[in-house]
Amino acid sequence: MLIYLRLLKESFNFAISALVNNKLRTFLSLLGVTIGIFSIIAILAAVDSLKMEIEDSISGLDNSTLVVARYSFGPTSIPRWRREQFPDVSYDEYQYLSRNLNDAEAITYGMNVPQEAIRYEDKTVSKVQIGAITHEYYDIEALKLAKGRFFNEAESASGAPVLVLGDEIANSLFGEAEPIGKTVRMYGRKFNVIGVIEKEGAGLFGNSKDGAAYLPVNVVRRIYGDNNRGSFPQIVIKPKGDVDQAEFIAQVKQRIRAARGLKPDDIENFFINELKGFSDMIDNLTGQLNFMGLLISGFSLLVGGFGIANIMFVSVKERTNLIGIQKSLGAKNKFILYQFLFEAVILAVIGGLIGLLFVWIASVLASMFTGDFQFVVSFKNLAIGTIVSGIIGLISGIIPAISASRLNPVDAIRTGM
Q1: Bridge partners of 129?
Q2: Beta carbons of 404 and 336 less than 8 angstroms apart
Q3: Contact, 374 vs 283, CB < 8 A?
Q4: Using CA atoms, how far apart are residues 325 and 339, in angstroms rounded to an integer?
Q5: Most exposed of 43, 69, 77, 120 (fewest Cβ within 10 Å)?
Q6: Rounded-to-integer distance, Cα 416 and Cα 223, Å
Q7: Would residue 356 count as lying in a domain?
């Protein structure tokens, strides 16, 4: 055992010595692997960061949450012309489900409406994201309030002029002043500020709660009406924790079909989207992005591998005389094999580590310029980069190392003379 350890140590020392003595050649070989590893790990880190940001944006919602709407989150076999004829879910249907779904923990109704400006005295904040929802949204989204409260059932049903602001909007309008109880203007009407949501940080697509304002949906219904196809109404349902998901979905379908008077042979003119399905779609999308990125950047790594193999063949040719002398002095084939194999692996790993360093620097700079969106280089990606670079070195160096180990010592010495 000690003999093999000594053999490995001597092979390692020979490899390091060869790399140090040929700095230009070592640098050129490193360059290809460095670029390849940088490309692969940068793509993996970017996709992982994207996935993490999307998951964080929906982290307040339970994975079993359902979204009932006239559109589908994912692919569907129903043709587009038929989907465009589907009616929007209505406020009456939301009330019907609230009365008849016993296994639902919370049900909320919301509308997507254009951004709006909010004014307080001489200050105006434009392009505010409007959250037009019912009071149950507070429980479904698990909102956290920094100040005040969320609107209650009575205020939601009556469409009371109350407003809950995101942290950024509150700071822009009131600064250090107390926002609770202040009156602001929006839609040409007065609204009373009753709450401020805790600071969340910017979202990937600019849809952070910090830049939003929440108000009872019945206020918006009076302004936009119930037949506005651009408002994309939706009913969000959170089932109780011990409920079977498949049975609950079947129950929701039955209730909506009954509310719409659909006959048994009529197709469903609505979609029940599972948040879990949306999460699966995210996983599928990021998986495809990873695959395409790895495929493209793999060509760069392949070029780096060919570069190492080429340099190793040159190294074998230059040191043919030395190989012959080593063999004549009793060096075994394994010693020569490990010597060149270690040289190739060390070369590739060093190139890979430099590439990982560049990825880390790039992630820090990118995070600085993109504000709250963070590019994360995980330990898993670092391990992948190191292992891949080692494998590339092993594959690239195996043939030159075998050819060196099989040289006849007499011929090798004569070649170098």
Answers
A1: 212
A2: yes
A3: no
A4: 14
A5: 77
A6: 91
A7: yes
Residue 197 or 294, more confident? 197
Please write the tens of the pLDDT for every residue from 381-412. 788 888 888 888 888 888 888 887 777 766 66
- Strand ranges (E), 74-144: 104-112, 116-120, 123-133
DSSP letter string over 304-339? HHHHHHHHHHHHHHHTHHHHHHHHHTT--HHHHHHH
Contact 104, 239 (CB under 8 A): yes
pTM over 0.70: no
Among 182-196, 228-242, 305-319, the minimum mean pLDDT is found in: 305-319
User: Are 55 and 298 in contact, with CB atoms under 8 Å apart?
Assistant: no
Beta strand segments in 21-122, E: 66-69, 104-112, 116-120
Q: Span 264-282, mean pLDDT?
A: 76
Q: How many independent structural domains does the chain possess? A: 2
The sign of the torsion formed by the CA atoms of 204, 206, 209, 215 equals negative
Q: What are the C-alpha distances in Å from 97 to residues 125, 235, 259, 325?
A: 37, 9, 9, 88
Q: In the 8-state DSSP scheme, what is residue 287?
A: H
Residue labelled with tokens 């296994």 = 103
Are 129 and 48 in a shared domain?
A: no
User: Tokens 């590019």 belong to which residue?
Assistant: 375
Other Cβ atoms within 10 Å of 76 Cβ, number: 12
Q: Are residues 44 and 147 in the same domain?
A: no
pLDDT at position 297: 65
Domain that holds residue 256: 87-269
What is the structure's pLDDT at 322? 73
Helix or strand (DSSP H, E) at 379: helix 379-405
Q: Is the dihedral of CA 26, 29, 30, 31 positive or negative?
A: positive
**To the nearest 10°, the Cα dihedral for 86, 89, 90, 91?**
180
pLDDT at 180: 93
Whether 218 and 52 have beta carbons less than 8 Å apart is answered as no
Pairing state of beta strands 271-274 and 189-197?
A: unpaired
More confident residue, 9 or 183: 183
Backbone angles phi, psi at 68, to 5 degrees: -100, 125
259 shares a domain with 123: yes
